[in-house]
Structure formats: C-alpha cells, structure tokens
C-alpha cells in the first residue's frame, strides 16, 4: 500500500476541505494534494485552501457540460479560483499582502467513473483515485497537458508524487 511521508513544515499552513472522500483515503488524499502543491514554490509560507469533493457521474457530467461545454462524464475536474482574467492585479494584491490566505480552488472527482476506469486499466481503485487527485491539484497550480511538452512535464511530476508515497507509477 502507500506510505505517508513527512512534507515540508510550511505545508501545515495549507488547508484541505473534503466532502465524500472515501474514509480509508481521507488522510493520504491530503498528503497527495499538499505534495502536488509543493511544486509551486510561490506557495511556500502562505496559507492555502483547496476543496476536494467526490461526486457521482451525473454531477461531474453536469459540471463538465456547464464549464467545459463537454456533455460527458470524466474522472476529475479542477476549477482554479484565484487565477481569473484579473490575474496580474490579483498577483500584485497577493504580493502586497503575504498574510492573505490563497484559495486555490476546487477539485471534483467522480468515484463512479474512477471505479470503472480503474477496472479497465487493471489498477487498484485507491491508486487511481489518488492519481486523479494529484492530477487535479496540479491543474490548480497551473500545470496542464495542452501539448506534448506540457503533458510530459505533468506526467513526470505525477510520477514523482506517486512514487514519493511508494505507490506504483500512474502510467
């Protein structure tokens, strides 16, 4: 199984709110998200908030259609809150107010979809679930997979995070 390992002290400032997360994955999901956030050095020594919500296929399909105009289910969706059209102005406000908490956004995970997908991939549900949380957290801090280079960088980071906790490589 996985191993919970120590994270940098500054991650104690980071708050993860969880809804409907499977009980046996409650603690490790926090560690996975926090480890992913450590790849964004600007977050060190700042209070950070992330919301993680597990949902059913019907709700993630609704979110996917509403926000991405895709009428289908998916495994994970991330919605960064602070990095909007006014990004430059927001970054200036953050720089001027380092004590201000930073709400990074929401991660929605479909446990139904991940159960089906993990069976198709012949992976344990818990590993695939945690990989998708890792993937969603990386999206919150600006990582993407819009092209081969970005995808390679994101895959490398996901692999580092998963192996850090003694889990199998995601791919």
TrEMBL record:
Q: Which Pfam families match?
A: YbeY (PF02130)
Q: What phylogenetic lineage does the species belong to?
A: Bacteria, Pseudomonadati, Pseudomonadota, Alphaproteobacteria, Holosporales
* PANTHER family given in the database record: ENDORIBONUCLEASE YBEY, CHLOROPLASTIC
Organism of origin: Candidatus Nesciobacter abundans
For the keyword Disulfide bond, the answer is no
Q: Which cofactor does it need?
A: Zn(2+)
In which family does this protein belong, per the annotation? Belongs to the endoribonuclease YbeY family.
The name this protein goes by in its record? Endoribonuclease YbeY
Concerning Gene3D superfamilies, the annotation shows: Metalloproteases ('zincins'), catalytic domain
* Residues bound to Zn(2+): 135, 139, 145
E.C. no: 3.1.-.-
Which gene is the coding source of this polypeptide chain? ybeY
Q: Where in the cell is it found?
A: Cytoplasm
Q: Which GO terms describe its molecular function?
A: metalloendopeptidase activity; RNA endonuclease activity; zinc ion binding
Q: Which InterPro entries match?
A: MetalPrtase_cat_dom_sf_prd, YbeY, YbeY_CS
Q: How is the cofactor bound?
A: Binds 1 zinc ion.
Question: Which keywords are on file for this protein?
Answer: Cytoplasm, Endonuclease, Hydrolase, Metal-binding, Nuclease, Ribosome biogenesis, rRNA processing, Zinc
What biological-process terms (Gene Ontology) are attached?
Answer: rRNA processing
Function field: Single strand-specific metallo-endoribonuclease involved in late-stage 70S ribosome quality control and in maturation of the 3' terminus of the 16S rRNA.
A GO term from the CC aspect: cytoplasm
